Amino acid sequence: MPLNEPVRKAAVITHGRVETIGDGLERLRAVAERSGVTLLFPHEEREKHGLPDGDDDVRQADLVVVLGGDGTMLRTLDSLLDSGIPVFGVNYGRVGFLTSVPGAELESGVERAFAGDYRRLDLPTLEVEADGQRRAAINDIVLISATHGRVVELNWQVGGEDYGKVACDGMVCATAIGSTAYNLSNGGPVLVWGIDVMAITFVAPHTLAARPLVVPRGQSLVARNETADIPVSVLVDGYPLAQLDFGQHAQVIFGEKRGLLALLPEVTFVRRFREIFPS
Q1: 69-107 pLDDT, tens per residue?
Q2: Residues annotated as part of the active site
Q3: Which among 116, 195, 233, 257 could disulfide-bond with 4, CB atoms 3.0 to 4.6 Å apart, if both were Cys?
Q4: How far, in Å, CA of 156 to CA of 57, rounded?
Q5: What does the DSSP 8-state code read for residue 238?
Q6: pLDDT tens per residue across span 113-139
Protein backbone atom coordinates (compact mmCIF):
# COMPACT_ATOMS: atom_id res chain seq x y z
CA MET A 1 0.00 0.00 0.00
CA PRO A 2 1.27 3.52 -0.77
CA LEU A 3 2.60 5.35 2.27
CA ASN A 4 1.37 8.74 1.02
CA GLU A 5 -1.24 10.25 -1.26
CA PRO A 6 -0.28 10.09 -4.95
CA VAL A 7 1.56 13.15 -6.19
CA ARG A 8 -0.35 15.57 -8.40
CA LYS A 9 2.18 18.42 -8.62
CA ALA A 10 5.95 18.03 -8.41
CA ALA A 11 8.54 20.81 -8.49
CA VAL A 12 11.84 20.20 -10.27
CA ILE A 13 15.28 21.35 -9.10
CA THR A 14 18.40 20.33 -11.03
CA HIS A 15 22.18 20.32 -10.71
CA GLY A 16 23.90 23.67 -11.23
CA ARG A 17 25.72 22.29 -14.27
CA VAL A 18 23.09 21.36 -16.83
CA GLU A 19 25.32 18.89 -18.65
CA THR A 20 25.64 16.81 -15.48
CA ILE A 21 22.10 15.44 -15.69
CA GLY A 22 22.24 14.55 -19.40
CA ASP A 23 18.78 13.54 -20.60
CA GLY A 24 17.47 13.28 -17.03
CA LEU A 25 14.99 16.12 -17.39
CA GLU A 26 13.44 14.64 -20.54
CA ARG A 27 13.13 11.27 -18.83
CA LEU A 28 11.53 12.90 -15.78
CA ARG A 29 9.00 14.71 -17.97
CA ALA A 30 8.08 11.43 -19.63
CA VAL A 31 7.50 9.77 -16.24
CA ALA A 32 5.38 12.73 -15.12
CA GLU A 33 3.23 12.53 -18.26
CA ARG A 34 2.62 8.81 -17.77
CA SER A 35 1.79 9.36 -14.10
CA GLY A 36 -0.50 12.35 -14.65
CA VAL A 37 1.76 14.64 -12.62
CA THR A 38 2.15 18.35 -13.37
CA LEU A 39 5.75 19.55 -13.16
CA LEU A 40 6.49 22.97 -11.67
CA PHE A 41 9.60 24.91 -12.67
CA PRO A 42 10.85 27.97 -10.77
CA HIS A 43 12.23 30.82 -12.87
CA GLU A 44 15.91 29.84 -12.52
CA GLU A 45 15.17 26.30 -13.72
CA ARG A 46 13.28 27.62 -16.75
CA GLU A 47 16.24 29.84 -17.64
CA LYS A 48 18.70 27.02 -17.11
CA HIS A 49 16.86 24.62 -19.44
CA GLY A 50 15.52 27.11 -22.01
CA LEU A 51 11.88 26.63 -21.04
CA PRO A 52 9.15 29.24 -21.68
CA ASP A 53 9.14 32.22 -19.32
CA GLY A 54 7.37 31.71 -16.02
CA ASP A 55 7.92 31.17 -12.32
CA ASP A 56 5.95 28.33 -10.79
CA ASP A 57 5.51 28.38 -7.02
CA VAL A 58 7.53 25.47 -5.66
CA ARG A 59 5.53 25.60 -2.43
CA GLN A 60 2.42 24.50 -4.33
CA ALA A 61 4.06 21.11 -4.98
CA ASP A 62 3.23 17.84 -3.25
CA LEU A 63 6.82 16.71 -3.77
CA VAL A 64 10.09 18.22 -4.98
CA VAL A 65 12.25 16.07 -7.28
CA VAL A 66 15.94 16.91 -7.32
CA LEU A 67 18.18 15.79 -10.18
CA GLY A 68 21.61 16.35 -8.66
CA GLY A 69 23.95 15.40 -5.85
CA ASP A 70 24.14 16.16 -2.15
CA GLY A 71 24.95 19.82 -2.76
CA THR A 72 21.77 20.34 -4.76
CA MET A 73 19.82 18.35 -2.19
CA LEU A 74 21.09 20.50 0.67
CA ARG A 75 20.32 23.76 -1.14
CA THR A 76 16.80 22.55 -1.86
CA LEU A 77 16.18 21.28 1.67
CA ASP A 78 17.49 24.55 3.12
CA SER A 79 15.15 26.58 0.91
CA LEU A 80 12.14 24.50 1.97
CA LEU A 81 12.66 24.37 5.74
CA ASP A 82 9.34 24.10 7.60
CA SER A 83 7.38 23.97 4.32
CA GLY A 84 6.19 20.40 4.91
CA ILE A 85 7.15 19.51 1.34
CA PRO A 86 9.30 16.36 1.05
CA VAL A 87 12.36 16.36 -1.23
CA PHE A 88 13.12 13.27 -3.33
CA GLY A 89 16.58 12.94 -4.86
CA VAL A 90 17.86 11.25 -8.03
CA ASN A 91 21.64 11.14 -7.83
CA TYR A 92 23.63 12.95 -10.51
CA GLY A 93 26.44 13.86 -8.14
CA ARG A 94 29.51 12.14 -6.76
CA VAL A 95 28.17 10.60 -3.53
CA GLY A 96 24.43 11.23 -3.31
CA PHE A 97 24.03 10.17 0.30
CA LEU A 98 20.73 12.07 0.58
CA THR A 99 19.26 10.75 -2.66
CA SER A 100 17.12 7.65 -3.15
CA VAL A 101 18.11 6.32 -6.56
CA PRO A 102 20.95 6.73 -9.09
CA GLY A 103 20.30 8.45 -12.38
CA ALA A 104 20.11 5.10 -14.18
CA GLU A 105 17.06 4.17 -12.08
CA LEU A 106 15.22 7.48 -12.48
CA GLU A 107 12.08 6.02 -14.08
CA SER A 108 11.43 3.27 -11.55
CA GLY A 109 12.28 5.41 -8.55
CA VAL A 110 10.30 8.49 -9.56
CA GLU A 111 7.27 6.43 -10.63
CA ARG A 112 7.16 4.93 -7.15
CA ALA A 113 7.55 8.33 -5.52
CA PHE A 114 4.76 9.79 -7.67
CA ALA A 115 2.53 6.89 -6.59
CA GLY A 116 3.16 7.81 -2.95
CA ASP A 117 5.47 4.88 -2.25
CA TYR A 118 8.00 6.75 -0.15
CA ARG A 119 8.63 7.45 3.52
CA ARG A 120 9.33 10.82 5.11
CA LEU A 121 12.44 11.46 7.17
CA ASP A 122 12.25 14.46 9.48
CA LEU A 123 15.54 16.40 9.47
CA PRO A 124 16.44 18.45 12.57
CA THR A 125 18.53 21.57 12.06
CA LEU A 126 21.21 23.52 13.86
CA GLU A 127 21.30 27.31 13.95
CA VAL A 128 24.33 29.54 14.31
CA GLU A 129 24.48 33.18 15.35
CA ALA A 130 27.70 35.00 14.49
CA ASP A 131 28.58 38.66 13.91
CA GLY A 132 24.91 39.65 14.00
CA GLN A 133 23.83 37.06 11.44
CA ARG A 134 21.82 33.89 11.92
CA ARG A 135 21.23 30.89 9.70
CA ALA A 136 20.00 27.30 9.93
CA ALA A 137 21.92 24.24 8.72
CA ILE A 138 20.70 20.81 7.65
CA ASN A 139 24.18 19.25 7.54
CA ASP A 140 26.73 21.11 9.60
CA ILE A 141 28.17 24.36 10.89
CA VAL A 142 31.93 24.70 10.58
CA LEU A 143 34.28 27.15 12.26
CA ILE A 144 37.59 27.08 10.38
CA SER A 145 40.82 29.09 10.25
CA ALA A 146 40.44 31.79 7.61
CA THR A 147 44.15 31.54 6.82
CA HIS A 148 45.02 28.23 5.18
CA GLY A 149 47.70 26.36 7.11
CA ARG A 150 47.46 28.57 10.22
CA VAL A 151 46.26 27.20 13.54
CA VAL A 152 43.62 29.02 15.59
CA GLU A 153 42.86 28.77 19.29
CA LEU A 154 39.19 28.30 20.17
CA ASN A 155 37.65 28.57 23.61
CA TRP A 156 34.51 26.46 23.76
CA GLN A 157 31.62 26.11 26.16
CA VAL A 158 28.73 23.63 26.04
CA GLY A 159 25.62 24.06 28.16
CA GLY A 160 27.30 26.90 30.03
CA GLU A 161 30.27 24.72 31.05
CA ASP A 162 33.74 25.90 29.99
CA TYR A 163 35.76 23.22 28.21
CA GLY A 164 38.86 25.41 27.85
CA LYS A 165 40.93 26.25 24.80
CA VAL A 166 41.94 24.04 21.88
CA ALA A 167 44.56 24.84 19.25
CA CYS A 168 43.22 23.45 15.98
CA ASP A 169 42.35 24.15 12.37
CA GLY A 170 38.69 24.46 13.36
CA MET A 171 35.63 22.59 14.59
CA VAL A 172 32.56 20.94 13.08
CA CYS A 173 29.05 20.93 14.57
CA ALA A 174 26.99 18.30 12.74
CA THR A 175 23.45 16.98 12.74
CA ALA A 176 22.82 13.26 12.40
CA ILE A 177 22.23 13.61 8.65
CA GLY A 178 25.48 15.60 8.36
CA SER A 179 27.54 13.31 10.55
CA THR A 180 28.76 11.32 7.54
CA ALA A 181 30.20 14.41 5.83
CA TYR A 182 33.00 16.69 7.12
CA ASN A 183 32.40 15.39 10.66
CA LEU A 184 33.20 11.81 9.65
CA SER A 185 36.30 12.78 7.66
CA ASN A 186 37.71 14.36 10.82
CA GLY A 187 37.13 11.29 12.97
CA GLY A 188 33.77 12.32 14.37
CA PRO A 189 31.01 9.88 15.36
CA VAL A 190 28.55 8.45 12.84
CA LEU A 191 24.99 9.22 13.94
CA VAL A 192 22.04 7.17 12.76
CA TRP A 193 19.29 9.13 11.00
CA GLY A 194 16.55 10.25 13.39
CA ILE A 195 18.79 11.01 16.40
CA ASP A 196 18.23 14.61 17.47
CA VAL A 197 21.72 15.46 18.73
CA MET A 198 24.73 17.57 17.74
CA ALA A 199 28.20 16.11 17.17
CA ILE A 200 31.11 18.46 17.94
CA THR A 201 34.39 17.42 16.34
CA PHE A 202 37.68 19.31 16.07
CA VAL A 203 39.59 19.65 12.81
CA ALA A 204 43.25 18.68 13.28
CA PRO A 205 43.45 19.46 17.03
CA HIS A 206 46.93 19.98 18.44
CA THR A 207 46.19 17.92 21.53
CA LEU A 208 45.21 14.34 22.36
CA ALA A 209 42.61 15.62 24.83
CA ALA A 210 40.20 17.04 22.24
CA ARG A 211 37.71 14.26 21.60
CA PRO A 212 34.40 14.43 19.73
CA LEU A 213 31.41 15.26 21.90
CA VAL A 214 27.75 14.39 21.28
CA VAL A 215 25.36 16.94 22.76
CA PRO A 216 21.58 16.48 23.37
CA ARG A 217 18.92 18.97 22.36
CA GLY A 218 18.64 21.77 24.86
CA GLN A 219 22.35 22.47 25.14
CA SER A 220 24.17 25.06 23.05
CA LEU A 221 27.79 25.62 22.01
CA VAL A 222 29.63 28.92 22.31
CA ALA A 223 33.02 29.07 20.56
CA ARG A 224 35.23 32.16 20.80
CA ASN A 225 38.23 33.03 18.65
CA GLU A 226 41.25 33.51 20.96
CA THR A 227 43.77 34.04 18.16
CA ALA A 228 44.93 37.65 17.87
CA ASP A 229 46.02 37.69 14.22
CA ILE A 230 43.90 35.03 12.49
CA PRO A 231 40.13 35.31 11.87
CA VAL A 232 37.82 32.30 11.95
CA SER A 233 35.37 31.68 9.10
CA VAL A 234 31.86 30.44 9.89
CA LEU A 235 30.41 28.12 7.23
CA VAL A 236 26.80 26.92 7.11
CA ASP A 237 26.24 23.81 5.00
CA GLY A 238 29.44 24.72 3.17
CA TYR A 239 28.57 28.38 2.52
CA PRO A 240 30.28 31.32 4.29
CA LEU A 241 28.15 33.25 6.76
CA ALA A 242 30.50 35.37 8.86
CA GLN A 243 34.03 35.88 10.11
CA LEU A 244 35.10 35.98 13.75
CA ASP A 245 37.93 38.29 14.68
CA PHE A 246 39.85 38.05 17.95
CA GLY A 247 37.45 37.92 20.90
CA GLN A 248 34.33 37.38 18.81
CA HIS A 249 32.22 34.27 19.28
CA ALA A 250 29.64 32.11 17.52
CA GLN A 251 26.74 30.36 19.22
CA VAL A 252 25.32 27.11 17.84
CA ILE A 253 21.92 25.96 19.05
CA PHE A 254 19.37 23.35 18.04
CA GLY A 255 17.05 24.81 15.43
CA GLU A 256 13.26 24.83 15.51
CA LYS A 257 12.95 24.53 11.73
CA ARG A 258 12.84 21.11 10.09
CA GLY A 259 13.61 19.71 6.69
CA LEU A 260 11.72 16.80 5.12
CA LEU A 261 13.44 14.13 3.04
CA ALA A 262 11.53 11.63 0.86
CA LEU A 263 13.12 8.19 0.62
CA LEU A 264 12.04 4.93 -0.96
CA PRO A 265 11.05 2.58 1.89
CA GLU A 266 14.07 0.30 1.40
CA VAL A 267 16.57 3.18 1.51
CA THR A 268 17.68 2.96 5.14
CA PHE A 269 20.64 4.51 6.93
CA VAL A 270 22.50 1.20 7.09
CA ARG A 271 21.97 0.46 3.40
CA ARG A 272 23.15 3.92 2.32
CA PHE A 273 26.11 3.83 4.69
CA ARG A 274 27.29 0.45 3.38
CA GLU A 275 26.86 1.58 -0.23
CA ILE A 276 28.87 4.77 0.28
CA PHE A 277 31.44 3.36 2.70
CA PRO A 278 31.88 -0.33 1.81
CA SER A 279 33.98 -2.43 4.19
Answers
A1: 999 999 999 999 999 999 999 999 988 899 999 999 999
A2: 70
A3: 116
A4: 42
A5: T
A6: 999 999 999 999 999 999 999 999 999
